[in-house]
Every structure is written in C-alpha cells, then in structure tokens.
C-alpha cells in the first residue's frame, strides 16, 4: 500500500471527495482536471457526467442535492463566465454547491486569450454569491479542498476552489468540436434566419484533444448533422470516408443556403499549423480581406 502522502494531490482530493460521500462528478474538461476526470470515469461507484457547458453542472448539482446526494463540478476558470445566470439557482434556493476550478490567465500565463476571464473569475463568482478559496501551491490543495467541503456541505453554501496555474503549470492549446457543443443553440439561431452565405465545417475528432483526450458528446454517438437538420439547416453532410471529401467540398462552395458539414477525423496530436492567437491582428486581417480596409 503506498503511503497516502506519496499519492499525487489529485488522487488525495478524489479520496477526500469520495470520503464525504460525493458520488456525482460533472465536468467540462480541462488539462488541469485530467487526472480527477480519469479517476471518476474509471470508478464504478460514482456517476460521471460530461457537460457541454459549465452551467449545466450547476443545475445538475442542485438536482443531486434534491435527491439526497453530493456533487462536485470540475471546470476551468474560463467556464465561470458561463455560470453566472445559473448560479442564481444556487443562491436563491440556498443549495450547497462545490466547484473545483482550474485557473488559466493567472500565474505565468502566456496566452492572452485567457487573461480577461482569468482576471475576472474570483470577482464574478463572488458577485453572484459564491465563496472563493484559492490554492496557490501544491501543498495548499488538499487542506483548501477539505475546508471547502466543510463549508459547502456543512454550512450549505456555494464554494469555489481556484487551483492556481502555479499548481498546474502554464499550458498552450489549439482547439477545434467541443467548441460547437458548447454553443449548440447557435444552430437554432442560424436555422431561424438561414443566412445564404454561411457554411460551417466541424472538424470532429470525438475528443477534447487539448485537455487530455476525454470523449466529447460526439464521441458518445451524438450526431451533430441530425441536430443541425432539426434546427432547419437544409444542407448537411456527415463525412466519414476520404472519398466523400470532394462531394463535401462542392457542397461547401455551392450551397446557397447554410451548409453544415461534420468531418470525422481521428484523434492525435495537432499538426504543425500554428494558430494565430492575436485577436486584434485576426480582426484586422479578416476586415482587410473582406472589405479591403481596417
Ligand atoms: C469556457 C471554457 N471551458 C473549458 C475550456 C477548456 N478547454 C480548452 S480546449 C478544450 C477542448 C476543445 O475541444 P475541441 O473543440 O473538440 O478541440 P480539440 O481539443 O479536440 O482539438 C476545452 C474544453 C475552455 N477553454 N473554455
């Protein structure tokens, strides 16, 4: 038997959560939560629920409490921005709520996209009634989560533990199909207006590749082309074989109603393509190409 102190902090946090009866883990993956997600998905004694967007995890936690259970929501700091309105449910209903938040946009972050939300996580959570505890170093994590558990399930308040990038290390990512799942409502908006000049190509690897290869909902068999059809988008195509690519390309270029194509690809590390993460530069480049001006 390994000494408990020699286990990684993620394993000790998992034991702590299970020890107080947490049996429901919901998550939008993040690389910092990779190990905790692996532990809960491999454990037959707990229910693990992948979410499309973080706010679902709040409603889920409230539902688990109504049923007499205990839940935890695992999310990235950027997800806090997706939670604001749903947190009214927790505050108004005085539900116990616990979330473990892996931070981006703080200690040593090199990706500018993460900075805005990174600076806002604590303030926004506190603004909607969530008590925020921070774990700045590895040694902090277990005692801070332990304190948060007591506050969330003992005092029955909403608590978020922010796990600093100092604990997790800074990361860089290229992203791609989880993003569409997070904004499925956009397909209904497109269907309601059917703009002639819109084509959507979803490169679907069935996983959240950037965060440790957790299965996305498409990996569980959800067919996005059927969702798009249900939203009234007339031209849809699911591309699963190489010899369909030419036909898909024709559809992309010819359709005079919105076109929605899902290109199934294998997982694996991203190619050498370097994403330009400079938002202002991308904006200017796009306007210059389309309008010939800044
Ligand atoms: C609001 C929010 N929640 C969670 C994350 C963490 N995150 C970073 S990349 C990523 C996965 C994106 O998956 P997908 O679009 O399928 O692209 P892939 O990584 O497979 O290329 C997630 C969930 C995030 N960046 N923002």
According to DSSP, the number of beta strands is 11
> What is the residue-averaged pLDDT?
91
CATH superfamily of the largest domain: Thiamin diphosphate (ThDP)-binding fold, Pyr/PP domains
Name the structural class. Answer: alpha/beta
Give a brief rundown of this model.
By secondary structure, this protein is an alpha/beta fold. The protein has twelve helices and eleven strands.
Provide a descriptive summary of the structure in words:
By secondary structure, the protein is of the alpha/beta class. The chain has 2 domains: 4-168, 3-Layer(aba) Sandwich (Rossmann fold), CATH 3.40.50; 178-264, 3-Layer(aba) Sandwich (Rossmann fold), CATH 3.40.50.970. The chain is built from 12 helices and 11 strands. It has helices spanning 9-19, 34-42, 55-66, 87-93, 115-127, 138-154, 165-168, 178-182, 185-193, 224-230, 245-254, 279-291; strands spanning 22-27, 47-50, 70-76, 97-102, 131-135, 158-163, 199-204, 207-208, 214-215, 235-239, 259-264. It has a 6-stranded parallel beta sheet with strand order 2-1-3-4-6-5, sandwiched between helices. The chain has a 3-stranded parallel beta sheet with strand order 7-11-10, sandwiched between helices. A two-stranded antiparallel ribbon has the order 8-9. Strand 5, helix 6 (138-154) and strand 6 form a beta-alpha-beta unit. Helix 1 packs across helix 2 (34-42) and helix 1 runs parallel beside helix 6. The longest helix is centred in the middle third of the chain and has 17 residues, at 138-154. The protein is globular, with a radius of gyration of 21 Å. The mean pLDDT is 91. Bound molecules: thiamine diphosphate.
């Amino acid at each position: 038997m390994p000494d408990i102190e020699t286990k990684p902090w993620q394993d000790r946090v998992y034991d702590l959560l299970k020890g107080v009866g947490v049996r429901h883990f919901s998550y939008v993956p993040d690389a910092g939560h990779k190990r905790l997600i692996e532990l809960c998905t491999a454990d037959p004694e707990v229910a693990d629920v992948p979410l499309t967007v973080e706010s679902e995890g709040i409603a889920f936690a409230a539902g688990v409490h109504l049923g007499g259970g205990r839940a935890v929501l695992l999310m990235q700091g950027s997800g806090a921005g997706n939670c604001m309105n749903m947190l009214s449910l927790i505050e108004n209903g005085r539900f116990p709520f616990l979330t473990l938040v892996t931070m981006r946009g703080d200690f040593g972050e090199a990706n500018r996209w993460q900075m805005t939300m990174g600076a806002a996580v604590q303030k926004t959570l506190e603004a909607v009634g969530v008590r925020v505890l921070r774990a700045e170093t590895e040694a902090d994590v277990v005692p801070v989560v332990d304190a948060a558990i007591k506050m969330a399930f003992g005092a029955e308040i909403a608590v978020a533990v922010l796990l600093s990038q100092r604990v997790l290390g800074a990361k860089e990512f290229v992203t791609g199909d989880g993003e569409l799942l997070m904004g499925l409502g956009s397909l209904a908006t497109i269907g309601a207006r059917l703009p002639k000049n819109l084509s959507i190509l979803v490169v679907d690897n069935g996983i959240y590749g950037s965060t440790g290869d957790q299965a996305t909902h498409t990996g569980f068999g959800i067919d996005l082309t059927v969702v798009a059809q249900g939203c009234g988008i007339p031209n849809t195509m699911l591309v699963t074989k190489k010899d369909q690519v030419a036909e898909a390309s024709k559809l992309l270029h010819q359709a005079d109603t919105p076109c929605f194509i899902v290109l199934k690809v294998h997982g694996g590390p991203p190619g050498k393509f370097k994403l330009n993460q400079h938002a202002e530069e991308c904006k200017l480049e796009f306007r210059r190409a389309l309008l010939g001006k800044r």
